[in-house]
Design brief:
By secondary structure, this protein is α+β, with helices and mostly antiparallel strands. It has 3 domains: 65 residues, no CATH class; 84 residues, Carboxypeptidase-like, regulatory domain (Immunoglobulin-like), CATH 2.60.40; 75 residues, Carboxypeptidase-like, regulatory domain (Immunoglobulin-like), CATH 2.60.40.1120. It is built from 3 helices and 15 strands.
């Protein structure tokens, strides 16, 4: 039935207009005939249906689609392609993910489908500092499936201030995330700095801070919005 509806609604507009034109010409001719055969009227009716049926088929398809629910199955895998059962899953269209054997399921009304059909699916395993996403193109299939492979989250930054033991800002100190010395920055007038942490929010990173005339400091601090305070002592 669905394939038939798709076929009917796919009849080009040119054919529909041609059907109406032919039916109109036949009606004019039949009106001038005293006793037109029944088959002639049947032919006119059939030709009219070519023009009219796609319109009603489109209405039927639209109504059917509006009542359709996409049941989207999502499987989450870690970097070793092992299924993750305790991930957090969400979508760009909202919806409450239901835990099902082997993954999650979103029930999304067809009416929420974006014009371009693109749906973004997201997943994370915060305790392992993993996250991932997958773009899914929604089509006529009401039961699509998608796999999301998680990767190490390294999107967070680490920020803070370098000060003296009496809390006076120290400008001009060089700060780096250990292992990424090529990305070092120099503290500003307020002793502040911001660096890409190469880690997830909440994950501890090593900071290396140095300035001529001061003792070098290596200090651990969690990446994210919580600022670090690094104290430098004079030599």
């Amino acid at each position: 039935m669905e394939k038939l509806i798709v076929t009917i609604t796919g009849i080009p507009n040119e054919w529909r207009l041609a059907a109406f034109a032919i039916a109109g010409i036949l009606l004019i001719i039949l009106k001038r005939v005293r006793k037109p055969p029944a088959i002639a009227w049947a032919a006119v009716f059939a030709i009219l249906m070519i023009g009219v049926t796609p319109f009603f088929a489109s209405l039927y398809a639209l109504r059917s689609r509006d009542s359709t629910v996409y049941r989207i199955r999502v499987t989450v895998l870690d970097p070793q392609n092992v299924p993750v059962e305790n991930a957090t899953v969400w979508s760009s269209l909202g919806g409450e993910p239901k835990k099902v054997p082997g993954g999650w399921e979103f029930d999304l009304p067809y009416a929420t489908k974006p014009l371009d059909g693109n749906l973004m699916l997201y997943a994370s395993a915060p305790e392992r500092y993993l996250r991932g996403s997958r773009r899914l193109k929604l089509s006529a299939d009401p039961n699509p499936a998608a796999e999301i492979t998680l990767e190490k989250d390294s999107s967070a930054t680490v920020r803070g201030q370098v000060v003296s033991p009496n809390a006076i800002a120290i400008p001009g100190a060089r700060v780096e995330v250990i292992g990424y010395d090529s990305e070092s920055v120099t503290t500003g007038p307020a002793g502040d700095f911001v660096l890409l942490a190469h880690s997830a929010a909440g994950e501890e990173v090593g900071l290396h801070v140095e300035k001529l005339g001061y003792h070098t400091v290596n200090q651990l601090h969690p990446a994210g919005e919580s600022p670090a305070t690094v104290v430098l002592d004079r030599q």
